[in-house]
Design a protein that fits this description.
With about 350 residues, this protein is mainly α. The protein has one domain (about 10-335): Farnesyl Diphosphate Synthase. It is built from 17 helices and two strands. It has a two-stranded antiparallel ribbon. It is globular, with a radius of gyration of 20 Å.
Amino acid sequence: MTAIAGTDPRDFLKDLASGRAGQLLRDALDHRWPATTDPMDRLSTIHRYALLPAGKLIRPIMMLESAGAVGGRPEDILPAALGLEYLHVATLVHDDIIDADEVRRGRPAVPSVYGMPDSIVAGDALIFTAFEAITECRAAGVSDAAIGTAVAILARAGTDLCRGQVLEAQLVGDPGVAVETYVEMVRLKTGALFRAVCQIGATLAGADPTRCAELASYGEHLGIAFQIRDDLLAYTTPANESGKSPANDLANGRPTLPVLLAYRAGDPDQRRRLVEALKRRSADPAALAGFHELLHETGALDSAPEHIAVHLDRARGALSTLESSPSVSVLAGITRWATAREW
């Protein structure tokens, strides 16, 4: 469905966004969420602001390509793919409330513009709309059985996501957390939604349980790698390029994988400094510079990519039994993009 670009990850993202799946999604989002001047329809106004202009659309594209990878028609499950974007954006709105982040995708975050109460409700409504969107696939001939299974998959992923969010809160301020605990948190918080988009795409396309499970495994491991990479980019790529600043994690006392690896490899003095930095929760330039130096000193920024590679290898392995196709090539291409240390 989409040509795979060369080694530059930015070229790949451009190709992905301009390919058939990306264009289907962008056109459908514009059609589904038209601008409104009705002052009584504030909820739709908030939703349009949250959803458009769209981000990378990685998750809904993965859903459409997963359907294509098992011989389905991506157009038939387009409403469900939009629904997973609604759910993803809902989590971003709620994350910005939890973390008190004021900027999202280079502009004021939804809570900063519309206030916390309406933003909570808008995020909740997007979640309900995601479930409704799956049922809209019935009009394209998708069976009720497949729709029911897809709804159950999404519900499980949503519960996992919430468990991951709560677990992350439990880890705040503790750089001595086991790496395995962090990976489990990431599997729940991020891997679950990646798993769901691929599994739902295959399910709605009529794939057998084995193929659905393979694509679910691909998505989960890709999601884990994606989150680790996102954590790493905060320290290796300028915020204006990655959209991710280390200030957010440090100000919230969040021990991401580079921090855990630094603590594990550090000497007593380095460990003490890491603990103090997380407890201080200061994001001023001097604190950030000192924190970044600690991560370099301990070799954490060099060892973190090894963990990304492990999960990407597992994701590629899950794809290896699928028959070669343009959609499988796109899914494989996403794993290559995820290895890049720059956006």
